[in-house]
Amino acid sequence: MKKIVLIYWTKGGNVEKSANKIYSQFDNSDIDIFDVDSFDVDTLDNYEMIIMGNSTIGAGKWEDADSNNKWNRFFRKIEEHDLSNRKIALFGLGNQVLYPAHFVDGLGILNDEVKKVKGKLIGQWSTKGYTFTESEGKEGDMFFGLALDEDNEAHLTDQRVKDWTNILKKEL
């Protein structure tokens, strides 16, 4: 049994690229990786830790009850599982320059869903070193998870991923 599952959406862009960077920091015998559309929620009980990642772009659509909303369907399904003893870590992508008032807001949406299923949030990340005006993805001076800006700070991503995954490994 693998200890960790990494679930992300959307496919084919910076979120998937970042998910693969996170995945590569773990021994592949300990972690599985899926886009949210191909993950079988009924296998959730096989994992000790869940890592979820998203992008802020399009996050407003999460609130729609649209049947095409991959995250919405995923979260409605996981409500049927007891995740109160499960460690959950989050990562999110945003753009500090074009959207400084909504930087990594998607982390806030993920955090709200983690609270609903009573998961234990781990891997909070400092806001130090980022330049933005507002974010629903933070509380105080900590993001709910790893914040990445592939558009403006791609040169910092590898080190941030390495440092963050080291924090997660200690939690595991």
Low-confidence stretches: 59-65
What is the chain-wise order of helices and strands? EHEEHEHEEEEEH
**Which CATH architecture?**
3-Layer(aba) Sandwich
Q: What is the CATH topology assignment?
A: Rossmann fold
Work out the helicity level. Answer: 25-40%
Number of helices: 4
Rg estimate, integer Å: 15 Å
Superfamily at the CATH H level? Flavodoxin domain
Largest sheet: number of strands, sense, barrel closure: 6 strands, parallel
**Span between N and C termini?**
15 Å
Q: How many strand segments?
A: 9
Keywords:
single chain; 172 residues; alpha/beta; six-stranded parallel beta sheet; three-stranded antiparallel beta sheet; 4 helices; 29% helix; globular
Tell me about this structure:
The protein contains 4 helices and 9 strands. With 172 residues, the protein is an alpha/beta fold. The strands form 2 sheets. Strands 1, 2, 3, 4, 5 and 9 form a 6-stranded parallel β-sheet that branches. It has a 3-stranded antiparallel β-sheet with strand order 6-8-7. It has one domain: Rossmann fold (3-Layer(aba) Sandwich), CATH 3.40.50.360.
Present the secondary structure layout.
Blueprint lengths: L3 E5 L5 H11 L6 E5 L13 E7 L14 H9 L8 E7 L11 H12 L3 E3 L2 E2 L11 E2 L2 E2 L2 E3 L5 H18 L1
Parallel strand pairs: 1-2, 1-3, 3-4, 4-5, 4-9
Antiparallel strand pairs: 6-8, 7-8
